[in-house]
Design a protein that fits this description.
By secondary structure, the protein is α/β, with parallel strands linked by helices. The chain has three domains: about 5-210, P-loop containing nucleotide triphosphate hydrolases (Rossmann fold, 3-Layer(aba) Sandwich); about 210-250; about 250-370, Zinc Finger, Delta Prime, domain 3. It has helices at about 10-20, 40-50, 65-70, 100-110, 115-125, 135-145, 165-170, 175, 195-200, 215-220, 225-235, 240-250, 255-270, 270-280, 285-305, 320-330, 335-350, 355-370; strands at about 30, 80, 155-160, 185-190, 205. The longest helix has 22 residues, at about 285-305. The protein is globular. InterPro entries: DNA_Rep/Repair_Clamp_Loader, P-loop_NTPase.
Length: about 375
């Protein structure tokens, strides 16, 4: 991954390359951005630039032995730690980054700007709560105790340190503050508030902006999305590449239809069918459960924009727009705001491992009240 592979982010790239040129490298960096943004891609490109054998003023060469290994994520001095959980074939206690490294490398080749849901679905852990365990802190110490393979730096990238178990976070404080020689930590976060202050205080924070609409549109067009649809998705997704692709799928496939049917069932007050819906929701798996709620929140937000007649902000088209326009005919602003609140509250609870079936049934009953 070269800086030139990532559109935009001129200021961030200049700050990173200048730090190397001026020999002002911090031993621990925090790249703070949004889900589906460029913070992980920038971290990998930064590591590649640091270890490049023939760098230019602004980028790695992309062709030396070190760059070729970084491109495949196989450089012996490039280390990754990331959230994991058990699968049907891997017990939770054995689910550490090293056990899933083959899947992780394949994932990065497919998802340059990933989110946690994409990763969980990719390796089969979508039904589990993901975390970075204390065992990973031991793996960090072991990996960094080895000598570098070349003349460059050991680069330890921790993706989503907000998923560090408290025992793991405390266990890496010493090595984060005093790493072995020629070692660079790059922590890549999407939620600084969820990280221990003792971790944050040991890092140099780089705030990574979102993709602009124009940059995101260009990325989508590169992936084969038609320009008119790419413009619509870029407006809708707030700089989140993964969200843009998910919305494209949801508008045509299951999530959109699922949400419509659920809302209609709530509106009809079909309590027997709502019990069946709760059973169906339980079987979706945690990541899909969250996805349905997130999609509903997005649809209610757009509905409120539609009611306000702010056409320049209205970002729906096709079947989504048809559904929302019909939705607005029977509901006023107060009711839609209440639905929005209920969905947000339920998303908060599902992220904290409540019983999904009971939560969804309770949510559906509250939606029945809100819709009448």
């Amino acid at each position: 991954m070269q800086f030139s592979d990532i559109p935009g982010f001129k200021e961030e790239k200049e700050a990173l390359t200048n730090a190397v040129k001026n020999n002002h490298l911090a031993h621990a960096h925090m790249f703070a951005g949004k889900q589906g943004g460029a913070n992980l891609a920038l971290a990998i490109a930064f590591g590649q630039f640091i270890n490049c054998e023939n760098p230019s003023e602004t980028d790695s060469c992309g062709t030396c032995a070190s760059c070729r290994q970084f491109t495949q994520f196989t450089h012996p001095d490039l280390h990754f730690i990331f959230p994991t959980g058990g699968t049907s074939k891997l017990a939770s206690k054995d689910a550490v980054s090293s056990a899933l490294m083959t899947e992780w490398r394949s994932f990065l080749k497919e998802y340059s700007y990933p989110v946690i849901n994409d990763w969980a679905a990719f390796y089969g852990g979508q039904d589990k709560q993901l975390s970075i365990s204390k065992e990973e802190s031991r793996n960090i110490v072991r990996s960094l105790s080895l000598s570098t393979f070349g003349s460059g730096y050991k680069v330890m990238i921790i993706w989503l340190p907000e998923y560090l178990h408290p025992s793991a976070a405390n266990a890496i404080l010493k090595i984060l503050e005093e790493p072995p020689g020629k070692t660079i930590f790059i922590l890549v976060s999407c939620d600084l508030e969820a990280i221990l202050p003792t971790i944050l205080s040991r890092t140099q924070i780089l705030t990574v902006s979102n993709f602009s609409e124009e940059e995101l549109k260009g990325l989508l067009v590169e992936k084969g999305v038609e320009e008119s649809q790419a413009i619509q998705l870029a407006r809708l997704s707030d700089g989140n590449v993964s969200k843009a692709l998910a919305y494209m799928d949801q508008a045509d496939q299951d999530t959109h239809k699922l949400f419509q049917e659920w809302m209609r069932t709530c509106y009809k007050r079909d309590y027997s069918e709502l019990v069946d819906w709760a059973d169906k929701y339980q079987k979706l798996g945690k990541m899909n459960q969250k996805s349905l709620l997130e999609y509903g929140i997005h649809m209610m937000r757009e509905s409120l924009i539609g009611i306000s007649q702010a056409e320049d902000l209205y970002r729906l088209s096709g079947s989504e727009r048809d559904f929302i326009e019909n939705f607005q005919k029977v509901l006023n602003t107060k009711k839609i705001e209440r639905v929005y609140e209920l969905l947000n509250e339920s998303l908060y609870h599902i992220e904290r491992n409540v019983n999904a079936r009971l939560m969804f049934l309770n949510l559906s009953l509250n939606l029945v009240k809100a819709l009448r």
